[in-house]
């Protein structure tokens, strides 16, 4: 587009917009991932952790964390001229899960982030998407100074189906996070295509 007009001979492209959820346990890097890839200033609904929340918020393993998402994170990334992703980061604590159904409506797929120090924190998110047949990719966030485990070991520990992609990533790094987003789009589209195929009789 030049000075508000499309180039001669090129019709304007109307991009396809897709909704992707970023889920996982408390302090796993959801807000960080959305912020790392978003081309707009991400919308964040973070609040400071308080003494009143200590009995409910398990901060073991993330003792330095002092804020939490209470509604959602929102960001946007253009993967191609004709493909835009809207990213919705979900709140990690159980008490905010009533928001998940609203956020999941109309989503193409999801990323479930995991921290190998606290794998059990992502089980509920995995169950949520499996029960609703929402395609998801498992993203193992490789935190600095934390031992890395072979992908197959992590898959076994999570008891993931073979058809669920599992990728290692760094939620702080734009290119790494972008690769996870590409993976979830490809997986979701392949899943949708497979569901449309007629069953052979």
UniProtKB/TrEMBL annotation:
The keyword GTP-binding belongs to this UniProt entry's keyword annotation: yes
Gene3D superfamilies hit by this protein: P-loop containing nucleotide triphosphate hydrolases (3.40.50.300)
Residue spans crossing the bilayer: none
Protein name: ATP/GTP-binding protein
Record's keyword annotation contains GTP-binding: yes
Keywords: GTP-binding, Hydrolase, Nucleotide-binding
Family matches, as InterPro entries: Gliding_Motility_GTPase, Gpn, P-loop_NTPase
Family: Belongs to the GPN-loop GTPase family.
